[in-house]
Amino acid sequence: MQKKIKINFTDFWPGFDIENNYFCKLLRIKFDVELSKNPDYIFFSVFGNQHRKFKCIKIFYTGENFPPPLDYCDWSFSFDYVDDVRNYRFPIYLLDDAYYELEREKVIDESMANRKFCNFVASNGNCQERNDFVNKLSKYKKVDCGGQWMNNIGYIVTDKKRFQSEYKFSVAFENSSYRYQHPGYTTEKIKDPMTVNSMPLYWGNPVVNREFNSQSFVNFYDFHSTEDMIEYIIELDKNNQKYLELLKKPWFLNSHIPEENNKENIKLFLFKIFD
Questions:
Q1: How many domains does the chain have?
Q2: In terms of domains, do 221 and 270 share one?
Q3: What is the rounded distance in angstroms from the CA atom of residue 243 to the CA atom of residue 198?
Q4: Domain check: are 146 and 238 in the same one?
């Protein structure tokens, strides 16, 4: 007989499904899960303060650029590499099973070097570093902007990955770099173009090479300046052989995802909380 656990969720983003989400699905493998207004365990995020009303075990989760509040939560799933056994580093891209498909061997053909130059899809303009980069790169060739921000193609893209698949490069800058001097904030922005073999142009997490093979994409942190990075992008754009050589490299070091991103290890950590 499965152990019964009473849980609930609060302070998550609008539209979050408290009955059918990543954590519920994993927990139901081992436990009899009851969603309760009087839970023994509360999952909470950063979109409110309702969690303060609960007097039970608190489990923090965020995909946003906030460090885990380990001073008032019992357990945490966050982007942070903080050295605390109560925190599990869990980047938001792990919610998408497409991430695990990146471990497969790539299928690259020469026609990929003949795709359109570069795309950028964003809904807000709050990141000045990103805005400046797109403007500078556009001086070389037009960057097709398909989101609500800086849109220059005449329509808003509805299928981001399909759009990105048509381009050699995709601007994959985070909305913000790390705060509070805690490197580790990586989102789906680098993962999405990888799933369609569009080479990410990345800025955000200065230690992103701990998660992905930085030889497989253009990483801002491998250059002295934005100008140096753009010079390298231009070189790749003009040299099909060099571009394809880079594109063929595996997305992960040693062709395998980091051990902490293995689904089984995530499950074991989560189960430990409830055992």
A1: 2
A2: no
A3: 11
A4: yes
Q: Return the pLDDT at 180.
A: 46
CATH of the domain at 34: 3.40.50.11650
Q: Model's pTM, two decimal places?
A: 0.93
- Its domain, for residue 189, covers 103-255
Are both 90 and 136 inside the same structural domain?
Answer: no
Q: What is the pLDDT of residues 229-255, one digit of tens each?
A: 999 999 999 999 999 999 999 999 989
Q: Based on the domain organization, do 210 and 112 belong to the same domain?
A: yes
Whether 243 and 267 share a structural domain:
no
CATH number of the CATH domain containing 246: 3.40.50.11660
According to the model, what pLDDT value does residue 110 have? 96
pLDDT digits (tens, 9 = 90+) for 77-133: 999 999 999 999 999 999 999 999 999 999 999 999 999 999 999 998 888 899 999
Residue 195 has pLDDT above 60, yes or no: yes
Q: Which range (116-130, 156-170, 175-189) has the least confidence? A: 175-189
